[in-house]
Design a protein that fits this description.
The protein has helices at residues 28-37, 65-80, 106-122, 155-173, 188-197, 209-212, 222-234, 260-272, 292-302, 308-317, 323-340, 372-375, 392-422, 427-453, 455-458, and strands at 11-15, 41-43, 84-90, 128-132, 178-182, 203-207, 238-242, 276-281. By secondary structure, it is of the alpha/beta class. It has two domains: 11-317, Alpha-Beta Barrel (TIM Barrel), CATH 3.20.20.80; 326-458, no CATH class. Helix 3 runs parallel beside helix 4 (155-173), helix 4 (155-173) crosses helix 5 and helix 5 (188-197) runs parallel beside helix 7 (222-234). The longest helix has 31 residues, at 392-422.
Length: 459
């Protein structure tokens, strides 16, 4: 049996809704569902690049009185249900609308310090602030670019004083509030240098895997472990991000792929990482979609030292005695299928599950952006970034691994078909799991066949 029953994580941060289901009401029912799961802090906006449902992403979006009104309503609802609140922003604003991104520009520094101080005039109840500085709608000058201030000045040398300025601004706005920084799109070396130099007071890091990428099958990687250890040596707390609720950026819009072992492995890796004090859901929660993964997440928070078997036994028992062993076998087959799938081939490979084909069957379509992470570390993770074509052996490898994933998904589907018949309770949930496993199998096999059948046509 598990040996622990006290919470391991001081902070558990959730998001109401997610980018493809953004119109989730901040109702009493929704918030109580998150509270029951173990979430204790709510992020005030989904904060995604295309601003689903017109959600706030940058500080400038709070210039709109409608957003101010909505945030006040959300903060009041969160406080009524006993939640802390986290404000998430990207800054400085990116190069659209002729905005500058130069953090060595005194006007930019003064503007954002002032905005963060004034944030607490409008929202004095906010408990924490999280920012990112390089991704989505927030960008920084390159030391190899044409900015006369930044040319030749390493990014970490510019970011440390800028981040410390923002920490001070938050403290002036509301003492003892911590500024959490997510180093999206920075290289490993840059983040290590910043962790070594930053003043630790009232500062924290919010991290996920592979230099700011997350996947269902990832635990923490070496970069995460190195950075959290460096942060811990400086007294900087770390919150780790992952996919815990069901939906995810990788397999969107599939929300009922039950793979509780993968959720457990992510949480256990964060539990065991040095310096990690909390966890944050990366994509978001939709209580109406809660199923096996979310239940495992909640069970782990209550008993972080329990074994996977101990946590899964009561979850499976909800469906009925005869269905439970079949479901557990199906969930393991689904987890193994996700592990077999060639996620490391290309960032774009995830798009096949939302109906966007990654390539035409004659190549593996790659993706890359002009950011430090993509031009450095992610090339060590993804096999295809900006290469226009690949060797046939690479395409064969990706096709064969996708085919094996499809077979594992098929095995899970066969088991779930049995479980539908055996289930005494929550049969509709099992049917949703079956529907999505079948779709994952079909998509994986279709992609695999296209690559394999075209090998000799395009070599």
């Amino acid at each position: 049996m598990g040996t622990g029953s006290s919470p391991r994580f001081d902070r558990v941060i959730g998001i109401v809704g997610h980018p493809t289901t953004p119109d989730v009401a901040w109702s009493d029912e929704q918030l109580e569902a998150l509270r029951g799961l173990g979430v204790e802090t709510l992020q005030l906006a989904i904060a995604w690049a295309w601003r689903p449902a017109n959600e706030v992403l940058n500080l400038e979006h709070l210039d709109d009185p409608r957003n101010v009104t909505e945030w006040r309503r959300r903060i009041e609802a969160a406080r009524r249900h006993g939640f802390r609140t986290l404000a998430h922003f990207g800054l400085p604003v990116g190069p659209s609308e002729d905005a500058t991104t130069c953090i060595l520009d005194p006007a930019v520094r003064q503007s954002y310090a002032g905005r963060l101080r004034r944030l607490f005039d409008a929202f004095p109840e906010i408990d924490d602030v999280m920012i990112y500085t390089y991704d989505q709608l927030a960008w920084l000058c390159s030391e190899f670019g044409n900015c006369p201030r930044c040319h030749g000045v390493p990014l970490h040398e510019r970011l440390v004083p800028f981040l410390e300025l923002l920490v001070d601004a938050v403290q002036e706005g509301k003492p003892r509030v911590r500024l959490w920084w997510e180093p999206w799109e920075l290289s490993a070396g840059q983040t290590f240098m910043i962790a070594d130099r930053i003043r630790p007071d009232h500062f924290g890091l919010l991290l996920h895997s592979t230099i700011a990428e997350v996947q269902f099958v990832n635990r923490t990687d070496q970069w995460f472990r190195n950075l959290s250890r460096l942060a811990a040596s400086r007294g900087v707390p770390v919150i780790g991000e992952g996919f815990f609720g069901g939906a995810g950026e990788d397999v969107d819009p599939l929300t009922h792929l039950a793979c509780p072992r993968l959720v457990y492995q992510q949480l256990a890796a964060l539990r065991d990482a040095e310096g990690v004090v909390g966890v944050k859901e990366y994509y978001g929660f939709v209580p109406a979609h809660f199923s096996v993964n979310a239940r495992l997440f909640g069970a782990f928070l209550r008993q972080p030292n329990a074994s996977l078997d101990d946590l899964l036994t009561p979850i499976a028992a909800r469906y009925g005695r005869s269905a439970a062993p079949v479901l557990r076998e199906a969930w393991e087959a689904t987890a193994f299928a996700l592990e077999l799938f060639p996620w490391d081939a290309s960032w774009l490979l995830r798009r096949i599950f939302d109906g966007t084909r990654s390539g035409d069957g004659r190549s593996v379509k790659g993706a890359s952006w002009m950011t430090p992470a993509w031009q450095a570390n992610r090339r060590g993770f993804y096999m295809v970034t900006d290469e226009p074509s690949q060797h046939p052996w690479l395409r064969e490898d990706v096709g064969l691994r996708a085919l094996h994933a499809a077979r594992a998904f098929d095995k899970a589907a066969t088991l779930l078909e049995r479980a539908v018949q055996e289930a005494q309770h929550e049969r509709e949930d099992v049917m949703l799991q079956l529907r999505e496993v079948r779709r994952a199998a079909s998509v994986s096999e279709g992609y695999a066949r296209a690559l394999i059948e075209n090998l000799h046509c395009s070599s």
